[in-house]
Amino acid sequence: MAGSSPFTGKDIEIVMNHQCQEHEPGRSGRRRARSRWWAVGLAGMTGLALTAVVVGVPATGAAGQAFTAADDPPGKPDRSTATDHRNEGKADGKARAKKSKGVPVPCDADKLIAAITLANARGGAVLDLAKGCTYLLTANIDGNGLPIITAPITLNGGKHTTITRAAAADQFRIATVGTGGDLTLNHLTIAGGQTTNAGTDGAGIFVSEGGALTTNHSTVTRNIAGGNGGGIVNNGITRINASTLRHNTAGIVAGGVTSSGALDISKSRIYGNTANAGAGVASSGTVRIEDSSISDNQAQDVVGGILVNGGTAVVTDSGVTSNTAGGAVGGILANVGSQVTLTSVTLAKNVASAGLGGGLAIETGGTAVVADSTIEHNNASLEGGGIYNADELIVRNTKVTGNQADLGGGIYNADTGTLTLFTTKIIKNVAVTDGGGIFNDVGGTVELNTATGTVVVKNRPNNCSGDVPGCPG
């Protein structure tokens, strides 16, 4: 990659589907060289007309039944029958209806393939896989190890149940959910998918437009994609519930999961994934992350944790920690056209090794609201150890502490930025050169609203640099 960027000090060009879009940010102040930012695209997103999608709303009919069954913890009654009045009055409590058994699938990959093929033909099924079994896939079926899912199919695993590609087999992803397909995974591990040809996306699971995926108490690990989405590519509806995406790799964007559709992540861990950009999560659609951890992901270039590349992102009661980028943005980037809301989020120990935005960055054309959160101990080599803002950022009841950068240890507000703070504490941040607490570039706007309780104190070498009304200096 060549050129110059406000994020890395060089041009960043990430090509998705052989297309890229150039973005020219506003002219920087005298302390920052004139530069440009190449917009990051995601697999299946360029040139795609995105319609409004409601996150977390399951499909109806048979698909909806599959979601409902999957959401019930094993051993507990099906909620749809637990209150059946025909069972009332039995004193011993055995009246609760039991969940029906699925079709057992012996520990044999060929029999699993046959069972899925039959389920597709019959309009769906619930398949009970063998506990303690590794289904070792050896055959390439149209680029996949399993038949393309075209109906509502639930795969119930158990302790140590794994579906994986054989090490000596041809390269293929594990599964594709086609249009009309609806795949639910319960207590299952998906591993070893490999699609390392340049531009090939989704090594673990690929969800097509019009397809749906739900993972419950499942793991997607050690999948390698040459293009985007080492673990999961979502162009439809995907729900990741009480699951783990770890140690997946993508050659371009999103080692963990990339999405252009509706993505819902709850009570899950996404960690240890690697990619060129957006190593943990990348989204250009609608993403909701709740009660989850995005940690220890590594981008060779930009955005270690979460890349929001257009669309909306809501992150609640979650941690984005210890993610690293070889260039800019260790934690979260709100790129052009993005709306990001963070509530009760901990952004900590993220690192932008050769760029700006250690914890959070808002690019020109993006907006963000941060509330009731903590941004601490993040590091950027250039600007904005805790936060880099080039557009519109509102921060409420949040603590920004212990962050470090060359300029703007706590917050760097660019010449195009508008920063508004309410009841926020900017404390004990460090700048190597200037603006320990806040650095406001010439042309930028900062409103502290000190009457609400905002304080900027104990920062080094000073609390503020530039025009920051109400700052003690």
Rg over C-alpha atoms, rounded to the nearest angstrom: 24 Å
Low-confidence parts, pLDDT < 50 over ≥5 residues? 1-98
Annotation, overall tally of beta strands: 49
Please give the largest β-sheet. Answer: 25 strands, parallel
User: What general outline do the C-alpha atoms trace?
Assistant: elongated
Question: Roughly what is the average pLDDT, rounded to an integer?
Answer: 84
User: Total helix count?
Assistant: 2
C-alpha termini separation:
40 Å
Helical fraction: under 10%
SS-derived structural category: mainly beta
Q: How much of the polypeptide forms β-strand, as a percent range?
A: 35-45%
Structural write-up:
The protein is built from two helices and 49 strands. By secondary structure, the chain is mainly beta. The model is unreliable at 1-98 (pLDDT under 50).
Helix/strand layout:
Blueprint: E1 21-23, E2 37-39, H1 61-71, E3 103-105, H2 109-121, E4 125-129, E5 134-137, E6 152-156, E7 162-165, E8 175-177, E9 182-186, E10 189-191, E11 194-195, E12 205-207, E13 212-216, E14 219-221, E15 224-225, E16 232-234, E17 237-241, E18 244-246, E19 249-250, E20 257-259, E21 262-266, E22 269-271, E23 274-277, E24 281-283, E25 286-290, E26 293-295, E27 298-302, E28 306-308, E29 311-321, E30 324-325, E31 332-334, E32 338-348, E33 351-352, E34 360-362, E35 367-371, E36 374-376, E37 379-380, E38 387-389, E39 392-396, E40 399-401, E41 404-407, E42 411-413, E43 418-422, E44 425-427, E45 430-434, E46 438-440, E47 445-447, E48 455-457, E49 464-465
Parallel strand pairs: 3-4, 4-6, 5-7, 6-9, 7-10, 8-12, 9-13, 10-14, 11-15, 12-16, 13-17, 14-18, 15-19, 16-20, 17-21, 18-22, 20-24, 21-25, 22-26, 23-27, 24-28, 25-29, 26-29, 27-30, 28-31, 29-32, 30-33, 31-34, 32-35, 32-36, 33-37, 34-38, 35-39, 36-40, 38-42, 39-43, 40-44, 41-45, 42-46, 43-47, ...
Antiparallel strand pairs: 1-2
